[in-house]
Amino acid sequence: MSTAASTETNANADDGSSNTRVALLQFKVTEDKATNQATARSFLRQAHEKGASLVVLPEIWNSPYATTAFGEYAESLPAMGFQYKYDGKDDDPLSACPSAKILFEAAVNYKIHIIGGSIPEIDTNGNIYNTCLCISPEGKVVGKHRKVHLFDIDVPGGITFRESDTLSPGNTMTAFDAGESFGSVGVGICYDIRFPEYAMLLTKKHMCNLLVYPGAFNMTTGPAHWELLQKARAVDNQCFVLTASPARTEEPNDGEEGKYKHYTAWGHSTVINPWGEVVGTCGAEEDIVVVDLAMGDVARMREGIPTFSQKRDDMYKLTES
Question: Nearest to residue 94, comparing CAs of 45, 143, 40, 133?
């Protein structure tokens, strides 16, 4: 069972009774699903002990990040609006998704909002998605995001990866209401952050105070673009941006390779404020980034630089299909 280091920041949190403490969970992912589940359970407990009211897990936390692995580790996930209730007497409604059950139990037991990173999801037609469940403190699915933009890239001298070899893309924009403390929260997954239109539409439609992206950037794209893209989305939308990455695991030595091709995550889970400043981050190792968000910064930014009311709809327009 893992015990994380903790990087804690008070981002000049506003006075008041609302708990605006967030925790980003950055932990190592292995080829053993049960180990990954135990690690997630431990990190969720630690986040609760640190007083977080909104917790974010990393992308693909129950499975190796390998297209050939997704089918083996995939689970059947509940739909939007699902309410978890289990008294131990009847059949467990989450028996087909033990990874998701960990999230529901933590949300209910700790009375916290959980943005569940992502796990491979398989539907009744055999399609596999990279899916994030957003769960309320009452154990209700208030958001279900299937990664919209699949990670298909070929960087010469860097990395080649094709999620579309296995995954299907989602087709919905995801936001939910996280109550008085945080308001509207928009959700994307990893590669979704590269598409400003998605974030801008989310914010236009839902006036998001937070944009949250579980993600697993790599050793090619991470150093170049991870923090840059977060700052861009924060300034574009004048809101907080939160990202949670798996912790880095080093390339195995020759002869020690596992069943699946190794993927080295960049790490550096981060919180960016509406001014584009880093207010919480960590390195590549296992960690929990804890930040008290100054939610008043969102309104102050939007009032001081009122770009939402200054857009030229007579010249250009961003619309949802």
Answer: 133
